[in-house]
Amino acid sequence: MSLSIGLLRSLAAIRRVEILDASRDGSKNVGQLVARDLGCQSGVSKHLRILHNSGLVNREKKGQQAVYSITPVVKRLCIELDAVTKCALKRRLGQ
Prior knowledge:
Largest sheet: 3 strands, antiparallel
CATH class: Mainly Alpha
Helix content: 55-70%
CATH topology: Arc Repressor Mutant, subunit A
Number of domains: 1
Number of helices: 5
Radius of gyration: 15 Å
Shape: globular
Number of strands: 3
């Protein structure tokens, strides 16, 4: 399996995409993501493990907790995808 296929598979679950989006404004621990209604603790932890194993998020231990942050490449990709989405929306609306 190619690296890109593995990466895209890790983004196949909408919840993982939502977790990445929620992490755009800074590092989060599991509890903070659960508080944003992104799932239960075990589910969010599972999604973060998949994202981490795919290289999409960094994990840093702070005491007893792990804090997750999106990688700089993913942050840039989110910015580019936002721009593409805005352009597509404008075209659809005829602007």
